[in-house]
Amino acid sequence: MIPLNGGDLHIPWQKELARAFTTPEQLLDYLGLDAAPWQPGLAARRLFAMRVPQPFADKMEKGNPQDPLLRQVLPLADEFTQVPGFVTDPLDEHDSALPGLLHKYRSRVLLVLRGGCAVNCRYCFRRHFPYADNSPGQGGWQPAVDYIAAHSEINEVILSGGDPLMAKDEHIAALLNELEAIPHLKRLRIHSRLPVVIHTRLTDTLRDRLAHSRLRPVLVLHINHANEIDADLADRLRSWQRAGITLLNQSVLLAGVNDDADALEALSERLFDAGVLPYYLHQLDRVAGAAHFAVSDERARTLMARLLERLPGFLVPRLVREVGGEASKTPLDLRLEPS
What we know:
Elements: H1 12-18, H2 24-30, H3 54-57, H4 68-73, E1 101-105, E2 108-114, H5 142-150, E3 156-161, H6 169-180, E4 187-192, H7 194-197, H8 204-211, E5 216-221, H9 231-242, E6 246-252, H10 261-273, E7 277-282, H11 297-310, E8 318-321, E9 330-331
Parallel strand pairs: 2-3, 3-4, 4-5, 5-6, 6-7, 7-8
Antiparallel strand pairs: 1-2, 8-9
Helix pairs in contact: 6-8
């Protein structure tokens, strides 16, 4: 379970966190849907807690049980199904270099800044991650900073979680001060889905601090469907882009959510309109409880071929899979060469 830390209700985005939906019945009632058809699966929230901020629910189509955003967050009976090959630690991450620090790739390290997350997506590959042992919190990151300083091959720090933007702006700024003092670091990358579900998390204060950093800032959004980008989010993203922050997106290919060419094409177009470049399209990490979201490699290749026909190259994400222990993401061979 991804825990939620206590918040400050004077901060707008933390107010939204505090009033998030935490039971399927609450969310379904808000959307005007009868909970009875889902009753056998609603208990799946005991396997992985449910949390859905209202601004994200507002992007869902009321009365539509197949809404692609709803499908990402609603507990289903499928989560109880044990499927061979789907495990609790699909990326071999549970043994870290230090608590909260993963050194998977030679030049990059991943720092789990916060274990909490604003939205618990049912396909989350870290739904079983031991956050209690890997969330250093404010000031507890000094051993990780010392590790980074002692390894000159590291040039990029990736803030992850949970969701790193669950940390307050001043906490992120304090960590940034320490990282900027390490001469061999070049970039700071933040991976977050929080702005997608609460757009007010993209504060001007954080934007300006990152924009004036010695480290080149990159924000990687996790957006899976075009309907997740409304006008409010797009406005904030464009503001961050104008400030000089590189904006990228990585999606997960999800059955029943975005596994058709029309949905993926619309996503790339809307991302670019908001100043964001498509980056990766991930095959699902094989985490226990999420097998019902899996899309076959053959289907994924067919979708990519259609995207290449419809979109300019810079709007086509790379289809990849992450394999535990590998030195980088693994691109999938699209098999486009004539036989």
